[in-house]
Amino acid sequence: MPNPLAPRLVFAVTTDLCFDQRMQRICGSLAAAGYRVQLVGWQRPASPPLTPQPYQQHRLRGWFQKGKLFYLEYNLRLLMYLLGQRAAAWCACDLDTALPLWLRARLGGQPLVYDAHELFTEVPEVVARPAVQRLWRAIEKFIVPRARLAYTVGPALARLFETRYGRAFGVVRNVSRYEPAPFLETTGSYILYQGALNVGRGLEQLLDAMPLVAGRLVLCGEGDCSAALRAQAARLGLLASGSDPVGKVEFRGFVLPAELREVTRQAAVGIMLLENVGLSYYYSLANKFFDYVHAGIPQVLIDFPEYRALNDAFDVAELVADLAPATLAAVLNRLLPGGDAARYQHLAANCRRAAPHLSWQQEAQGLQRLWAGVVPLASAAGV
After folding, report:
1. Of 40, 116, 233, 360, which shows the fewest CB atoms inside 10 Å?
2. What is the CB neighbour count within 10 angstroms for residue 353?
3. Spatial separation of the C-alpha atoms in residues 117 and 21, rounded to whole Å
4. Tens digit of each residue's pLDDT (9 = 90 or more) over 288-335
């Protein structure tokens, strides 16, 4: 049982709590360190029941699920909920939760913490709409200087924030928890993409490449492009049918983290592609990179700075400079059965060597130090 006198921390996200692995790791680690932690999220129509966690969870409910009305409703409902809560510190996870948490922190005289999961003002959906981008930039300019502590997912984004705002940014990478398990001796049976099916993920190009690829593709996740990608796969004849009951492409939808780990272990190759459609993607460092490494499977990576730096250090992937279907097909065929088996085994062996060094267990120590500088566990506030 958590110590009822331990400092209480409240985090807020707009995501479904069952699938937000970063927040599960962060909140779980801070709870294990001795804090009382609550994570607030949003109830989606297809949200599964909450999975047990060592911290409190609460879902807000409303009418809207996307667009301007969603953000307006979410922020109003979040503020009303927070007014009834007490905490020693309040953490906004990305800009879309920041204003209610800043106001609640200001009203109570407690510190605001900002966890930038991405460069929100530079994601493709924002970059494509100048008026929307100006609004989010104004919110960022207001929030970042007022946060007692700020951290983000990678060194490149931290440097960008520091240059933009002249303040220190910590780094808490999206590293998976390392759970040693026997590596599969045989090559897996499919190419795996895990993550959101959103604009700028290189998924349209990947589907166009699949007729040229000697293997199957499994996609785990959903997003704004789900319907369009399924329609594209159908047009290309890639889905299961009477003449092909398996199909070259399978959409599995949302997969819970525990099941996803096993799906990843069974794969042959992981996919981590992005388009250069904004600084947020260009400087990103996604958790799927580490998930593939921990599963011992080589991956195909876009040649962006954070991924190149990690691959230079560990050599676990093939990097591609462009997303042309012919480029993707060539590199995937090289890693699949019938390709360059020696190269595949070399990358897989490097994954096994790298996995213990790229672990959430190490990252969590830095996270706890950051938070201890804002809310020491010795604090007797008991709120």
Report:
1. 233
2. 12
3. 12
4. 999 999 999 999 999 999 999 999 999 999 999 999 999 999 999 999
Angstrom CA distances, 240 to 6, 131, 251, 267, stand at 54, 42, 10, 19
Query: What number is the average pLDDT over the span 44-70?
Result: 93
- Assign 246 to helix, strand or coil: coil
* CA atoms of 74 and 62, how far apart (whole Å): 8
- Please report the DSSP string for 332-363 in residue order: HHHHSTTS-HHHHHHHHHHHHHHGGGS-HHHH
For the chain, count helices (H), then strands (E): 15, 13
Tokens of 214: 């000697």
Q: How far is CA 174 from CA 24, 104, 371, in A?
A: 11, 27, 17
Question: What are the structure tokens assigned to 244, written together?
Answer: 């092909």
Do residues 318 and 302 touch, judged by C-beta distance below 8 A? no
* Nearest residue to 120 (alpha-carbon basis) of 138, 104, 106, 100: 138
- DSSP SS3 for 260: helix
Closest CA to 154 of 112, 194, 118, 198: 118
63, two tokens: 């009418």
Query: Which DSSP state fits 31?
Result: H
d(CA 175, CA 16): 19
Whose CA is closest to 77, among 50, 59, 53? 59
The residue whose two tokens read 């090289």 is 334
3-state class of 141 per DSSP?
helix
pTM: 0.86
Instruction: Give residue-wise pLDDT tens across range 237-251.
Output: 999 988 788 899 999
Rounded Cα–Cα distance for residues 376 and 383 (Å) = 13
